[in-house]
Amino acid sequence: MTGYGDERLAVDIRKSGAVDYIVKSATVFEDIPNISRRAIRFWENLQERIAAEQAQQETRKRLADILAFLPDPVLAVDTTGTVIAWNNAMEDLTGVPAADMLGKGDHEYSIPFYGERRPLLIDLVLEPDSEILKRYPIVQRDGDRITSEAFVAGIHGGKGAYLWGTATHLYDTTGNRVGAIEVIRDITGRKKTEEIAKASEGKFRSLVEEVPDFILVHRNGKLLFVNQAASESTGYAVEDLIGKSLIDFIIPQDRERVIATMTQRMKGEPVEPYEIGITTSTGQVRNVIIRGNLIEYEGAPASLNVLTDVTEMRKGEKALTDSEARFRDLFNNMSSGVVIYQPLNDGQDFII
Questions:
Q1: Distance between CA 23 and CA 296 in Å, rounded?
Q2: Which of 70, 75, 122, 123 minimizes the C-alpha distance to 98?
Q3: Which residue has the higher pLDDT, 120 or 196?
Q4: Per-residue confidence at 1, pLDDT binned at 50, 70, 90?
Q5: Which residue in 297, 302, 301 sits closest to 205, CA to CA?
Q6: Which of 52, 148, 174, 247 has the smallest C-beta neighbourhood within 10 Å, fewest atoms?
Q7: What is the pLDDT of residue 189?
Q8: Are strands 214-219 and 177-186 parallel, antiparallel or unpaired?
């Protein structure tokens, strides 16, 4: 190290065996503290960046581990459509290992589902397209989130399955969109249950339309189903009854009792048959005996009620009672004696 130098000095130094030499001016020594501080700051910044990168890597690994063990299949892509996540559940659903899918683009992720490259629900998040919408029978939007379901024939070795999916944007820590993520769920079991329920409901409707009794299904008093017999006897159209409150058709003096038994039945408590009065569209009162049971209707608990119209029977009973009363009054007020006897032995004898 020297404070001056020229070509001759350089030759002499090389001849002496030195590998290199540094020429420093006097001001260099004055700048050493500043140079040291800058070097320390540079080193500290470098360490901070390294620590931040390590933290990001650890965060990515934790997120990857979480995604890997989620029970629902998960697919994630970056803004170019390249697959960045394909978890264990997705491997099980499609039969495609993550190693064969990660880093792939050009709609490679659709092949396990449809056997061809085509947009999926996740692509609607990245780029809304009316043509993609046509591929899904129902699409629901909630802010950035898109939800739909469809039958996918390529799943489960060609057996197919009903899949429900929801997709939304992926954001980085600064709020920038960096891709999209889709969560998928196999709802085949639920769909089959719904189909069985619909078939059962169809049979139920066919059966109850042939019954002369009134058949009502209500939930907390709101009418959900009414058969034709109830419509014809009350004078209300079926569509005018559906959605209305059952209480509105009960005579005032019976309403409190009906409300109490509704509460009992919805709790699963037994309720004995009882008689109430209901009003028709013309204001007439029909007497009915109501029997009920708790059922599941359209996926939720409801009350099934059978109402037997006893109006004519009650009228007959009243007429008989009135007739007996009139006969008794007539009998008691007669001035002549009356004897009732029963003949015996072909009229040869009798008893009083």
A1: 95
A2: 75
A3: 120
A4: very low
A5: 297
A6: 174
A7: 83
A8: unpaired
Q: What is d(CA 256, CA 273) in angstroms, rounded to the nearest whole number?
A: 16
User: Who contacts 188 (Cβ-Cβ below 8 Å, separation ≥6)?
Assistant: 161, 162
pLDDT in tens, 253-269: 999 999 999 888 888 88
Mean pLDDT of 227-251: 91
Q: Read off the DSSP letter of residue 108.
A: G
HEC per residue, 283-295: CCEEEEEEEEEEE
Over residues 222-226, mean pLDDT: 92
DSSP code per residue over 256-286: HHHHHHHHHHHTT-----EEEEEE-TTS-EE
The domain locations on the chain are 7-63, 69-186, 193-309, 314-344
Q: How far is CA 127 from the centre of its chain?
A: 26
Q: How far is CA 6 from CA 9, 16, 26, 29, 305, in A?
A: 5, 16, 17, 21, 114
Residue type, 212: P
Question: Radius of gyration over alpha carbons of the chain, in Å?
Answer: 44
Spatial contact of 227 and 209, defined as CB atoms under 8 Å apart: yes
CATH class, 193-309 region: alpha beta
Give me the CATH code for the 69-186 domain, please. 3.30.450.20
Burial of 31 (0-12, 13-18, 19+ CB in 10 A): exposed
CA distances from 149 to 183, 188, 192, 325 (A): 12, 11, 14, 71
The residue written with tokens 């046509």 in the block is 134
